[in-house]
Amino acid sequence: MFDLNEMVMAQEVLVMPPYSGELFTLTYGALVSQLLKDYENDAEVNKQLDKMGYNIGIRLIEDFLARSNAGRCNDFRETADAIAKVGFKMFLGIVPVVTNWSASGDEFSLLLENNPLTDFVELPEGHSSLNYSNILCGVLRGALEMVEMEVAVWFVQDQLKGDNLTEIRLKFIKRL
Questions:
Q1: Which listed residue, 24, 60, 93, 95, has the most CB atoms within 10 A of its CB?
Q2: CA 133, CA 1: separation in Å to the nearest integer?
């Protein structure tokens, strides 16, 4: 027979330590810094960040679906709410505002007042076209593709470039 206290202590050993947002931010900063050294221009770094994000997104969606118990979204508006209120909250600890819907309902913006990826970050001189957080665009694209939605995702505004907030735009292209 097991003692309850022994079981609790054994579980504590097996549980991973809590995720550190600062550690992730610094690690991501080191990744971007290395990409800037490895590639000749910002456009190529942006492309590599998007590609990495896409690969993360196609795997992250499984974790999202398992942990969130989210059902199938009926339209793009429900998808936008799930992304902002559940996905961003779950993985980054923030809830962006969903706004700027197109008249046709196939395009919207996510407004981030605080982007956790950009804590302690300043764009290096000569890299004004770098989309530092472009990995987020890739994650969104990859995750949505895995639930049979092709989307285009891009930055409209970026606090690192002097804007008041960060705006990510998503446009529904087609059902896959």
A1: 60
A2: 52
